[in-house]
């Protein structure tokens, strides 16, 4: 038991070692984004946090001279503009997020507005906005930057590779893993035996367990990373959850067997006239609704969690007038502490649900209906359109 | 909805797709395959050991049952042997008794026969002896009686007296 603690402590220390030295140096830049005090500022701050970011900022404060200081480190910006690929460091925007700072790279002008990089038209020198605060003389570019989310994905990916390949190596010398591997092994067994095996089916689960395991740990670890004070919100990015959902979509669409397509396109056991109508519904369900439910569920749960935690922390400022500093601070601490506990549960739950539903969808696509259609008293086939539906309501 | 679409970053989607694909491939190759293979191996090993133990247990039970059967058979055999011996013993005794009885009966019969013949012989002898003796006594008495005249007269008188009485 002690050994496991020591091991995890070592891992934690490793994480801190990776992050601390880079974050120590201060980015002494001007820029806006002052104190967060009023309700609107809190809202804006939360909105800003929910979005992906081009810098890795840990904290910022205003010093005695009224100067805004940011602690963190810049990340590379890689954009595909109309003139081709352009790369520069995000520090060139000087933490500006409303399009006032223009960066010019090899004849292409860029501005950052609400965490999005815009390419300005060739003759423009400043961003002009319309009434709805949309840029009128620029357009978004394909932004392949190493953003904060990408850093999170890379970090978790490396962590997973490191820890699980270490576990894999342990099996070469001993039957039962030691140290941190003893924590990981039951998790792997859990995903295999409780998610993959019962939902995909005994016959086919081996082919998909690798994907399901990867997705489960990827989502779970990223959800947990979102709860750390580093301020990651990777699984709360639509692009990330959409990517995960589309992977599941591709896997179950590609591996679907004849039976599966038969039940989608030409449902047996229902009147022939209804079959085309059902086919449309089934196709929409398989290709749009299923992946959409996956991506929205994960995105909404994690984003909502972040918003709730940050709003509860904001009680500290919002209720300072009515409760005093001590009252509002302790209220915010207690509430955000308990909601964070719930978020730890949600982090696991969402990873579980995503993986479980992915396994279920794959299971529906590869299931073998070796049963004959049941017949009722009059010798008609009993439709089995409902037979799998009940499993996942 | 508009905001959600606006927030969707195609660039991040592309990067995430590449990274996730890479991660899945690397994890499958370096982690999941060896881990799941070793886990399966271990489970099969455990299952094998359990099966072997079960088999050994069954064999043991079979062996024990065999032993029990053998023991039962031996016991049964002993029982029958004892029974047979007992029967033989009683039969022998009965036979001996019967033979002894017939022998004894025969001997008794023979003895009785001998006794009767001896008795007959003794009786015959006794008869002849008694007859001789009687004749001798009668001769002597008659001789004695007829030697004296008086006595002869007296006898005649006695005989006459008897005759008158009649």
Which helices and strands, and how do they pair?
The complex is a heterodimer of chains A (393) and B (166).
Chain A: H1 2-24, E1 26-27, H2 39-50, E2 55-62, E3 68-74, E4 76-81, E5 84-89, E6 98-105, E7 108-113, E8 116-120, E9 138-140, E10 142-143, H3 148-173, H4 181-200, H5 205-226, H6 238-254, H7 258-265, H8 275-318, H9 320-366
Antiparallel strand pairs in A: 1-3, 2-3, 4-5, 4-10, 6-7, 7-8, 8-9
Helix pairs in contact in A: 2-8, 3-5, 4-5, 4-9, 5-9, 6-8, 6-9, 8-9
Chain B: H1 2-7, H2 10-146, H3 149-165
Write up this protein.
The complex is a heterodimer of chains A (393) and B (166). By secondary structure, chain A is of the alpha+beta class. Chain A is built from nine helices and ten strands. In chain A, α8 packs antiparallel against α9. The longest helix of chain A is centred in the C-terminal third of the chain and has 47 residues. The radius of gyration of chain A is 26 Å and the shape is globular. Chain B has a domain of 35 residues. Chain B has three helices and no strands. Chain B starts with a helix and ends with a helix. The chains are: A alpha+beta (393), B mainly alpha (166).
Major sheet size, sense and barrel closure of chain A: 4 strands, antiparallel
* Percent range for β-strand residues of chain B: under 5%
Structural class determined from secondary elements of chain A: alpha+beta
Terminal-residue CA separation of chain B: 185 Å
Principal-axes shape call of chain B:
rod-shaped
Q: From the alpha carbons, calculate the radius of gyration of chain B and give it in angstroms.
A: 66 Å
Tell how many strands the DSSP assignment of chain A holds.
10
Number of helices of chain B: 3
Largest interface, C-beta closer than 8 angstroms, per-chain residues: A-B, 46 and 31 residues
Helix percentage range of chain A: 55-70%
Overall mean confidence score, pLDDT of chain B: 90
Mean pLDDT of chain A: 82
Function (chain A): Key component of the proton channel; it plays a direct role in the translocation of protons across the membrane.
Signal peptide (chain A): 1-26
Organism (chain A): Winogradskyella eximia
InterPro entries (chain A): ATP_synth_F0_asu, ATP_synth_F0_asu_bact/mt, F0_ATP_A_sf
